[in-house]
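Hey, I'm writing a tutorial for new members on how sequence and structure tokens pair up, and I'd like a real worked example in the thread rather than a made-up one. If someone can provide the structure for the chain below, I'll link this post from the tutorial.
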Amino acid sequence: MKLSQFKFELPEEQIALYPHSIYHEVENEKGKKETLRMTRRDECRLMVLHRKSGKIDLFRKDKKGKPIQGEFIQFRDVINYFSEGDTFIFNDTKVFPARLYGMKEKTDSKIEVFLLRELNEEMRLWDVLVEPARKIRIGNKLFFDDSSTMVAEVIDNTTSRGRTLRFLYDCPHDEFKRSLFALGESPLPRYIIDARNNHHGTEEDMEDFQTIYAQREGAVTAPATGLHFSRELMKRLEIKGIEAAFITLHCGLGNFHDIEVEDLTKHKVDSEAMRIDADACSIVNRAKANGRHICAVGTSVLKATETAVGTDNMLKEYNGWTNRFIFPPYDFGLADTMIANFYHPFSTLLMATAAFGGYDLVMEAYRQAVENGYRFGCFGDALLILDD
């Protein structure tokens, strides 16, 4: 397929800058009114796409099965589309506070340093991105706190914005990581940071930009579809007998890179570390063998499971890297249902969703989403794709 086939007009006001929330106006101790925001992860909208019949549901239905206009399906209603024994596959990667701000030695220029991954634990080597990159050369030192205890030296150029840093911090590794991450902030996508009045992430952002089941640290962006699951919804799934399997794929910034070729077969995506253990395989394969639904929660899960599925359509253990790029047409081997967010035009995440749900049907769903005011992006609304 061609890149241009994934173009659509997305109004700027429909790009979500915060997770779905409710707002309360309260009076503080000084008698002034303040607005408090309370996150409601599972109360965003959920559009339901039936890929075999081609139906698209936006609204809840009355007792006669007729849509109730204006009463949108909520994400928490996802449980109504699954039965005992069906299995959800979640990505349990954990986002770390990857965005730091430092000062360049002598010039005091402010530099943004985005941590990508640790290259060598003993030598304190990190792969990072820097901005503005033109100011940062090999041999430069960066200072990250007022006491100058956290210092890094640039030892290599990797890409136009990429650098390798060696942190000059003499202490046990665990203490170093705690000190480093204490200086960082939530790695919210650039499109969110730039659109907010406050250009820095907050402690609240770090909580909002993390799934409630995150376990394995290593992601620099959240597996966004998983952000909709609340503890209450997870408990309701458990009570209903719906199984949960957890795999790990450390989501990287490649999800936000511009595609610079029209022919999608020529695009290469960044590699991401992933792990699927025996427990996950056992849960998923038992459900598969019993003819139950397997639901991939997000495009990261779709990428990981398609990397590790065998020719027998069963999930295999895996510990390594994947650079799988999924776009239409694609023959899926494991999941028969999927939950996704609504993504930006031209994004690889939209392409993976279109491959699973069918290009024409997914693009029609996107047209209806724009027309009906759905929210897009990491904190946006969700799309459930069913195999019926």
